[in-house]
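Hey, resending since the last one bounced:
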Amino acid sequence: MSAGQSESTAQNYHSLLKRFVTWAATQNLLDWKQVELKHLMLFLEHERNRPLDTEEPDSTRRLSSESIYLEIAALRAFYRYAENEKLLSANIAENLSLPRRWKRLPKALTDAEVESTAATAAATNALHTVRSGRARTGLRFRSPHLRVVQHPAPNNCTSKRAS
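The structure tokens again:
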């Protein structure tokens, strides 16, 4: 593979290419030189339609577009390498286009997470309200304790000193 790839990427590509080799054997494609672009397309179609390995065979769940993206990337990287090393005469995978990678949306929060977030926001807002009114109350925040300090009384009122 490419010199700049991480060990993790190389391992992922290895397992993805192994999946292709297993599928190719079922199609009587026993040599990389026999594989054509149409075979790569058939393999990708097979992958899009097959049930997930972790699901029951009758499950309707399928591979994500991200998984298909990785399979295409692995095939393209392998064929680029094979062509550069003169192992194959042409890079048949160069015309495989990678699907657009979508930005993932955040997962929905559970009711408990919403309540926790709301409680935190309410507490933060209350703390902000107290802090913004500290000049009026004579309170000063000093982590981790509060301290009462003397401030001039508004409107020429008299105030008692805090001890």
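The CA atoms of residues 68 and 123 lie 45 Å apart.

Sorry for the duplicate.
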